């Protein structure tokens, strides 16, 4: 078991990756950033660890944590998580039961991921629904159209 002093350091690295990942996203064409601070992030994590002892309380902490993450995404969009603790709890419990056999693991993971993603709403700052494709910003500019045309001719 790793020493307890490494948890905040490890979490700081996760926090930095989270900030970078969100800054690398474009939601509906708009740049976003993460404005949350490290201390609430650490607090939610520690509360999550303690709530695991209650067997079921972790699901409500996770729901609150995901809502906090959404509230702290800044930009021209509003991100929110609408899932509730009891919804997370029963889905994770069913998912755990479904993974007791190895074969349904991919379907259980897909089912859980689809549900979590369906609970995230992205709206324009004006309140209009804007659930468009979420794109990770490319590291390089798009390829010139002439090059693409040459590639299409070469492949036929």
Task: Give a brief outline of the structure.
This protein has 156 residues and is of the alpha+beta class.
Q: Helices and strands in order, then pairings?
A:
Elements lengths: L5 H18 L1 E3 L2 E5 L3 H14 L6 H14 L1 E3 L1 E5 L3 H14 L6 H14 L1 E5 L9 E3 L8 H11 L1
Antiparallel strand pairs: 1-2, 1-6, 2-3, 4-5
The succession of helices and strands, N to C, reads HEEHHEEHHEEH
End-to-end Cα distance: 58 Å
Global outline: globular
Mean pLDDT: 84
Number of helical segments with 4 or more residues: 6
Query: How much of the residues is beta strand, in percent?
Result: 15-25%
Indicate the low-confidence ranges by residue numbers.
Answer: 127-143
Derived structural class:
alpha+beta
């Amino acid at each position: 078991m790793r020493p307890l002093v490494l948890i905040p350091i490890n979490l700081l690295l996760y926090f930095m990756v989270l900030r970078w990942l969100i800054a690398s996203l474009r939601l509906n064409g708009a740049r976003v950033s993460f404005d949350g601070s490290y201390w609430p992030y650490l607090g939610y994590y520690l509360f999550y660890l303690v709530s695991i002892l209650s067997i079921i309380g972790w699901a409500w902490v996770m729901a609150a944590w995901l809502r906090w993450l959404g509230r702290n995404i800044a930009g021209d969009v509003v991100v929110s998580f609408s899932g509730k603790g009891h919804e997370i709890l029963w889905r994770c419990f069913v998912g755990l039961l479904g993974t007791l056999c190895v074969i349904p693991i991919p379907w259980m993971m897909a089912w859980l991921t689809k549900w979590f993603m369906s609970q995230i709403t992205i709206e324009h700052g004006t309140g209009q629904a804007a659930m468009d494709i979420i794109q990770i910003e490319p590291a390089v500019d798009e390829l010139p159209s002439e090059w693409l045309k040459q590639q299409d001719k070469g492949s036929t």
